[in-house]
Amino acid sequence: MKPKLVVTVLTVFLLIYSATVTADYVRPPPRKTLHFPWSSRPSPSPQQVHISLAGDKHIRVSWITDDKSSPSIVEYGTSPGNYSETSDGESTTYSYLLYTSGKIHHTVIGPLEPSTIYFYRCGGQGPEFQLKTPPLQLPVTFAVAGDLGQTGWTKSTLSHIDKCKYDLHLLPGDLSYADYIQHRWDTFGELVQPLASARPWMVTEGNHEKESIPLFKDGFESYNSRWKMPFQESGSSSNLYYSFEVAGAHIIMLGSYAEYYEYSDQYNWLKADLAKVDRKKTRWLIVLFHVPWYNSNEAHQFEGDAMMASMEPLLYAARVDIVLAGHVHAYERTERVNNGKSDPCGAVHVTIGDGGNKEGLARKYKDPPPEWSAFREASFGHGELKIVNSSHAYWSWHRNDDDEPVKSDETWITSLISSGCIANELGS
């Protein structure tokens, strides 16, 4: 049989197989990795601008310049072109084999007013950007998409997120899929800049961020250099795990690829961080990490079991409401679950590693599904989590269907603080 005929037969088989798995929806084919024009001319302007939260009422602005003498200053104010404040920050560079990064700047600005638009400029030159700070109180809306990469589906996902009204972006690992090719970090930074420069992007690491070379290069150097998160502000000793608060919700970003066993640094930090949360004031507790603990897809089975055995008791005791993960290139939402079975006082787990990566979708699920699995589908898309008030949040998942965001799954989630699960702890 000729090679071209073999490919045609396999393609037809896969299309038929996809149609039988989800009879009411035929998934579109994969899309190619995006390619960006390369320029040998250095640019004096700020590049790859993105922002993240940096403690109470503060935001960290990060960007890269080719000019190594460029200052790490950010000018900002509430009127276009009128910068009433200036902050100075820090910078770093790194080398990776034959690659040397530009000058990577991180500058914290603030204190800032909530729900306010600020205009800012990086390094004393270049274009003006604008950002909107998160609200002080509920409601607050998060856009959620993991395993993004740089494909045609990534572009579609980002365009859909751009259309929704959200306050922050949560990304549970696997950002650029650079996979040792460092200039792909640069193209990813340019790809997400329109969104990441306007709303805070809060990220945690995935396996594609590791990029370690045994005996030569430690892991996560590129990720840690470029995407600095508020780990110091939250008492963590590592950029791979940290926490932050927004509008009365406490968000914990854990590291699936940092030590997580009992008495490890991450375990001790998590235990201390949870102990600081006052559930009388903080009505919602949300956790993100890369490798899912509850997964009925055939892909990546058992990879999260060791971390779950170590840390799930801590999350359950603290009554975590929602857990968001990536890694599996498909979507799945569970009922409230703990210790491998449905539990009304457990967390709702959502796997959302379907942002648009180059590796394609994980199409095969276990059949029949576990009793805790509420909805699952292998499609690219993004999620939106709107915490409406102290008792209710609305979750929706939007499939990328022919470049139109189609709402395929939605549910209301009642906070555990409103369900009686932690009434004794609050003395009510």
In short:
By secondary structure, this protein is of the alpha+beta class. The chain has helices at residues 3-21, 152-163, 183-196, 221-226, 265-276, 305-317, 423-426, and strands at 47-53, 59-65, 73-77, 85-88, 90-92, 95-96, 99-100, 103-109, 117-122, 129-132, 140-144, 168-171, 201-203, 242-246, 249-253, 284-288, 322-325, 331-338, 341-342, 347-352, 373-377, 381-387, 392-401, 404-414. It starts with a helix and ends with a helix.
Describe the structure.
- The protein is α+β, with helices and mostly antiparallel strands and 428 residues long.
- The protein has seven helices and 24 strands.
- It has helices spanning 3-21, 152-163, 183-196, 221-226, 265-276, 305-317, 423-426; strands at residues 47-53, 59-65, 73-77, 85-88, 90-92, 95-96, 99-100, 103-109, 117-122, 129-132, 140-144, 168-171, 201-203, 242-246, 249-253, 284-288, 322-325, 331-338, 341-342, 347-352, 373-377, 381-387, 392-401, 404-414.
- The strands form five sheets. Strands 14, 15, 16, 17, 18, 19, 20 and 21 form an eight-stranded mixed sheet that branches. Strands 13-12-11-22-23-24 form a six-stranded mixed sheet.
- Strand 11 (140-144), helix 2 and strand 12 (168-171) form a beta-alpha-beta unit.
- The radius of gyration is 22 Å and the shape is globular.
- The model is unreliable at 1-25 and 424-428 (pLDDT under 50).
Please state the CA-atom Rg, rounded to the nearest Å. 22 Å
For the sheet with most strands, the description reads: 8 strands, mixed
* Average pLDDT reading: 90
Q: What helical percentage do the residues reach?
A: 10-25%
Main structural class: alpha+beta
- End-to-end distance, in Å? 73 Å
Large-scale geometry: globular
% residues in beta strands = 25-35%
> For this entry, what is the oligomeric state of its chains?
single chain
Please give the count of helices: 7
Counting DSSP E segments of at least 2 residues, the number of strands comes to 24
Low-confidence stretches: 1-25, 424-428
